[in-house]
Amino acid sequence: MSTSSQPPILTADSLTKSFGGFRAVNDISLTLGAREILGVIGPNGAGKSTLFNLLAGAIPLDAGRIGLDGVDLSHARPEARIRAGLGRTFQIPRPFARMTVLENVMASAQGQRGERLLPALIAPRRVAEQERANAVRAREILDFVALSHLEDQPASVLSGGQRKLLELARVLMAEPRVILLDEPAAGVNPALLDMIIDRIIAINQLGIAVLLIEHNMEMIARLCPRVIVMAAGKALAEGAPSEVTKRADVIDVYLEGMPA
Ligand SMILES: Nc1ncnc2c1ncn2[C@@H]1O[C@H](COP(=O)(O)OP(=O)(O)OP(=O)(O)O)[C@@H](O)[C@H]1O
Q1: Same domain, 247 and 204
Q2: Considering the entire predicted model, what is its pTM?
């Protein structure tokens, strides 16, 4: 069992998931401390994204339990997990390409009255007020991720790194207590990489815990005091990045996937 020294916010107990006869996630347990940035590393196909999909509720568990601050979310729908404070980003960001950057962020606001027809008919003024409040908050978040200058642009014009920042903004709009970050460094140029690392630190300093899947070991070393190494669906090792990456069994699983 992988355990943080801090009080836990997210706990996963013995999560298991098979596709056909293949166990992609095989009895994984972890705890994420309330103010922690915990890394999840491992070679391609180790089961990292499947683990995130289980935590976020994108796919159902075969077995195991997921708790957020003591609340059992094991079988909750993805939207219920977001409302409970569990946010996620994707390896390949999926913004609404034709909507503006600001609209993309506003679309992640929780409990939008305007989305439901009845409140909009009964109390249009309150719906408009909430829209205005959402716009103010979305602009603050865009400022936080340094995308304010692009708020009126369609999301389709953003670079790979800017899309990652927009994903962060969208997830922040839902007021998470935990963020699952799936490869925030992938497809990002070096200039924006520093910016993204800096923003993840700032997000964590706001009191948000982060579970981070990443192949970029510089990012892992800069952000994560502790990492879990996954291999073949299992947790192979856990500890400080500088220590686990020296272990012979960890080096072996990375070398296995390499051409001879
Ligand atoms: N929906 C699915 N159906 C069948 N097999 C799947 C499915 N999703 C994942 N797998 C398999 O499960 C294994 C783990 O995949 P997963 O994407 O979780 O690995 P990963 O560690 O995230 O890899 P990467 O670092 O390349 O993103 C792989 O062998 C993959 O082919």
Answers
A1: yes
A2: 0.90
Show the ligand 1 pocket: residues with CB < 6 angstroms.
Answer: 19, 24, 42, 44-50
Residue 180 to residue 143: CA distance in whole angstroms: 22
Judge whether 55 lies within some domain.
yes
- Residue to mutate (ligand 1; options 16, 41, 49; most atoms within 8 A of CB): 49
- Domain holding 48, by residue range, is 8-95+159-256
Residues whose CB is less than 8 angstroms from the CB of residue 184 and which lie 6 or more positions away in sequence, other chains included: 89, 164, 167, 168, 196, 200, 212, 214, 219
How many CB atoms lie under 10 A from the CB of residue 54? Answer: 24
Q: Tell me, yes or no, whether 128 and 228 share the same domain.
A: no
ipTM: 0.96
Residue-wise pLDDT tens digits, 203-229 = 999 999 999 999 999 999 999 999 999
Closest Cα to atom 5 of ligand 1: 19
The closest residue, in CA terms, to atom 11 on ligand 1 is: 24
Question: From ligand 1's centre to the CA of 19, what distance in Å?
Answer: 9
CATH number of residue 30's parent domain: 3.40.50.300
Query: What does the pLDDT read at residue 23?
Result: 96
Query: From the CA of 55, how far away is ligand 1's center (Å)?
Result: 15
Band of residue 2 on the pLDDT scale cut at 50, 70, 90: low
